[in-house]
Specification:
The protein is of the alpha/beta class. The chain is built from ten helices and nine strands. The chain binds adenosine monophosphate (AMP).
Length: about 300
């Protein structure tokens, strides 16, 4: 695996691969890799001749009060993992390489960027679309691989690629979960053992909605109420247990629901009825750790 830190070297290497007639797959990441990231690499390997991955903790997608400074970084470990997975080219630029002094140009996907996570994290998707555009221009992949875990990001990037005619196929891969259902995330590393258990409420709320939908419930209002109820229950069980926990170090955290929404997966607009398929998405703060998760409900048979 060849490592590049400059744009010029990365571009030359990926151009050489494509000129040799190889279909180039690209997996952009912020590092602190887990099985979710590796599933994207494996999908890329399965349908491309060469795979480029990037590791770049993109400062422009973090808000001023967010976790940029403490975001987990484990470059040598990540590099070894990618090498083992058969990645051919790794791009790991420094911030100054990607954002030279005086950079003032942004790529913005209007409207979509202020829904779901974009609403709670103003400026987040502007940072994502700007860096992904830059990476696409540098790597020039034939196909780029993203996780369904970040469902709003998928909608925003798909729209950007369509609107700006990027010559790249966007491939979306399923969410990889821990055995107990928690969606894998680099941010799970922030959770204390108790918070780790509390975090399961996200998956529980989605599982409940999925079950009700399977049993025929079609009303988004009813399904949202059921999903939110799981969060109220979590609060109650926490209140019951706080007395026992108070003396210990690992106290229960506040779990604060940010949104529980049922939307069209492409427009991210709310839907009233899930018969035509829907994205059920949830975001919550467990202590100070913001977690997201979602499920896709397929269109029901007529
Ligand atoms: P990140 O490093 O968090 O920017 O994520 C890089 C890519 O990995 C994004 O396309 C994410 O959607 C994807 N990803 C993160 N977690 C998971 C997961 N649990 N399952 C599948 N893909 C994931």
């Amino acid at each position: 695996m060849n490592l590049f830190t400059t744009i010029a070297e990365m571009r030359a290497a990926s151009r050489a691969a494509r000129q040799a007639g190889r279909r180039l797959g690209f997996v952009p990441t912020m590092g602190a890799l887990h099985e979710g990231h590796l599933s994207l690499v494996r999908a890329a390997r399965a349908c491309c001749d060469a795979v480029t991955a990037s590791i770049f903790v993109n400062p422009t997608q973090f808000g001023p009060t967010e976790d940029l400074a403490k975001y987990p970084r484990s470059f040598e470990r990540d590099r070894a993992m990618l090498e083992r997975e058969g990645v051919d080219l790794l791009f790991a630029p420094f911030v100054e390489e990607m954002y030279p002094a005086g950079a003032v140009t942004w790529v913005t996907v209007d409207e979509l960027s202020s829904k779901l996570d974009g609403r709670s994290r103003p400026g987040h998707f502007r940072g994502v679309t700007t860096v992904v555009s830059k990476l696409f221009h540098i790597v020039e992949p034939d196909a780029a691989f993203f996780g369904q875990k970040d469902a709003a990001q998928v909608a925003v990037i798909r729209r950007m690629v369509r609107d700006l005619n990027f010559p790249v196929e966007i491939v979306v891969c399923p969410i990889v979960r821990e055995p107990d259902g928690l969606a894998m995330s680099s941010r799970n590393a922030y959770l204390s053992p108790t918070q780790r258990k509390q975090a399961l409420v996200l998956h529980r709320s989605l599982a409940r909605v999925e079950k009700l939908a399977e049993c025929g419930e079609r009303s988004a209002k009813q399904l949202i109420a059921a999903g939110r109820e799981e969060f109220s229950r979590e609060k109650l069980s926490r209140q019951e247990l706080t007395g026992h926990e108070r003396s210990g170090k690992d106290v229960f955290a506040e779990v604060k629901l940010d949104y529980f929404a049922i939307v069209d997966p492409d427009t991210l607009d709310p839907v009233d009825d899930i018969s035509n398929g829907a994205l059920v998405a949830v975001a919550a703060l467990v202590g100070s750790t913001r977690l997201i998760d979602n499920i896709l409900i397929n269109r029901s048979n007529p």
